[in-house]
Design goal:
This protein has 3 helices and 5 strands. The chain is of the alpha+beta class and 164 residues long. Helix 1 packs antiparallel against helix 2. The relative contact order is 0.11.
């Protein structure tokens, strides 16, 4: 899973194409303006207008695609917008819990629940339930459902089996 803030190849291709279109527009504007007869008494400001235009387009693209939105967007621990996963829990499972990290398959995630406003390391602040499938020590696949508690830094401080 990719870290938060990075986009897939489709997003990168879209941003590349948008930048290319804006650049081509700028060049065509520059060429069209350079072919017009210039008045002798007034200085040209076409390059200044084009730079302002590009800055505005850049700001709009940044604000639309690279700012976090939605509930919990400013929190360290939050569900991914793509698949509702919590990358801190996935990292914890793969590094500290699973016998075979490559066999990990996520099934479902609950919404991250904020327990309190604590700013102490090691004190649970967030809680999330996760159902997943992975190989056990004998090589067979088992389904587990656990509740994870994380502190304000995103470290998993507690995990328990979820009892239905």
């Amino acid at each position: 899973m990719s870290p938060p803030g990075l986009f897939s190849g489709a997003w990168e291709a879209f941003i590349f194409k948008l930048t290319k279109v804006v650049w081509e527009f700028y060049i065509s504007l520059k060429l069209n303006l350079s072919q017009l007869p210039k008045p002798k008494s007034q200085p040209t400001t076409s390059s200044g207008c084009a730079i302002v235009f590009l800055l505005i387009i850049g700001f709009v693209v940044y604000s639309v695609f690279f700012t976090k939105k939605g509930p919990g967007a400013n929190e360290i621990v939050h569900n991914s917008e793509l698949d509702a996963s919590v990358y801190q829990v996935e990292d914890y499972l793969k590094k500290n819990y699973l016998n075979d990290p490559d066999s990990y398959q996520e099934i479902s995630w609950s919404t991250v629940f904020k327990l309190n406003e604590s700013k102490e390391a090691g004190v649970p602040k967030y809680q999330v339930r996760h159902k997943f499938r992975a190989k056990n020590g004998f090589g067979g696949y088992v389904v587990e459902e656990k509740v994870f508690r994380l502190d304000y830094l995103g470290n998993v401080v507690d995990s328990k089996d979820f009892l239905q």
